[in-house]
Write a structure and sequence with these properties.
Layout lengths: L18 E7 L7 H11 L4 E7 L5 H10 L4 E4 L4 H7 L2 E2 L1 H6 L4 E4 L5 E4 L2 H12 L10 E4 L3 H12 L5 E4 L3 H11 L3 E4 L13 E4 L23 E4 L8 H8 L4 E2 L2 H7 L1 H8 L7 H8 L3
Parallel strand pairs: 1-2, 1-3, 4-6, 7-8, 7-10, 8-9, 10-11, 11-12
Antiparallel strand pairs: 3-5, 5-6
Helix pairs in contact: 5-6, 5-9
Bound molecules: NADP nicotinamide-adenine-dinucleotide phosphate (NAP).
NADP nicotinamide-adenine-dinucleotide phosphate binds next to helix 6 and helix 9.
């Protein structure tokens, strides 16, 4: 990427009127959000700043209540505060309530905090971008994993009109509880049946931690997966997980996890800074270069 394509290489001063946002997490040092929002702020020459806000759990409520007092337009919320943010905000979107967690806070001119969740949106936007031929209504999806991220994917896929969502998790009770609380077209299948669950699927999503750097690969033979099924791994470190590499080798269309991370950030940026940002190849390159 040349300097001309990288807007952050030009120093940009902020003024006393700068719009403020940030990310609250514990720890927060690994977050890519400051780099991501910093790129868009520079690209759009916005008088604004997006800062890391390391907030220990015992300080979270005080820190959240301080945001309006400090003039913040809002913030992202990451682990371990996503559930607490939903509970403490003055209001919440229906989607955030269904997902049971907030990742985005938007503060209005009266200082009221609204909790939102943009993970479902980011997941679907990433799929649309990475696999434009995928048609949600045509075939079942298989979701592996029933943790925090899975819940947002299940809400997204239910709303996208999937005829059936097969949910598979190592601990089946967790999948049962998730399916019971969300309802809709979700059908729980056993961990030992996970290879057969791929029969006739149009989409396979890994929402487990397996395949992450430092973790073993997800153990999932792909023989039953139709050749045109889209395979999406929401793990993004590494970008090409063993699952995606195996899917690519057999010719399936693949979508990596970085798209979800980038797209989930767009609605927050638009709400705080007043500009709809785009996800571009240059932005992907810039985020992947994070030291
Ligand atoms: P989580 O709540 O801790 O859930 C972890 C999931 O992984 C559970 O389903 C767990 O199954 C499963 N798992 C763990 N070890 C396993 C093993 N040895 N074999 C089989 N399954 C195993 O985590 P999360 O917050 O949902 O995150 C899951 C992944 O999504 C992480 O890699 C995270 O980085 C990624 N993520 C990506 C994005 C993005 O924007 N791309 C956003 C959020 C999360 P059990 O229930 O049996 O323990």
């Amino acid at each position: 990427m040349s300097a001309a394509q990288n807007p952050t290489q030009t120093y940009r001063a902020i003024t006393g009127k700068a719009r403020l946002a940030g990310v609250m997490g514990w720890p927060v040092g690994h977050s890519r959000s400051p780099r991501l929002h910093g790129y868009w702020l520079a690209q759009h020459k916005i008088d604004g700043a997006y800062v890391p806000l390391p907030v220990a759990p015992e300080n979270f409520e005080r820190a959240l209540r301080a945001l309006p007092a400090l003039g913040f337009r809002g913030a992202n919320v990451t682990l371990p505060h996503k559930e607490a943010a939903l509970a403490l905000a003055d209001s919440a979107t229906a989607e955030a309530r269904r997902i049971g967690a907030a990742n985005t806070l938007v503060i209005d001119e009266k200082g009221r905090i609204e909790a939102r969740n943009t993970d479902a949106y980011g997941f679907i936007e990433s799929l649309k971008e990475g696999a434009p031929a995928w048609r949600p209504r045509n075939a079942p999806a298989v979701v592996i994993g029933a943790g925090g991220a899975s819940r947002a994917l299940l809400v997204a896929l239910t709303d996208a009109g999937l005829p059936e969502i097969r949910l598979v998790n190592r601990t089946s009770g967790r999948a049962d509880a998730l399916a019971a609380s969300l309802g809709g077209p979700i059908r729980v299948m056993g961990w030992s049946d996970r290879a057969k669950a791929l029969d006739g699927a149009g989409l396979l999503v890994n929402a487990t931690t397996q395949g992450m750097a430092g973790q073993p690969a997800l153990e999932l033979p792909l023989d039953h997966l139709p050749p045109d099924a889209v395979v999406n791994d929401i793990v993004y470190v590494p970008l090409e997980t063993p699952l995606l590499a195996a899917a690519r080798r057999r010719g399936n269309p693949v979508v990596d996890g970085l798209g979800m991370l980038l797209h989930q950030a767009r609605p927050g940026f638009a709400a705080w800074f007043g500009v709809e940002p785009n996800v571009t190849p240059d932005l992907r390159t810039y985020i992947l270069q994070q030291p």
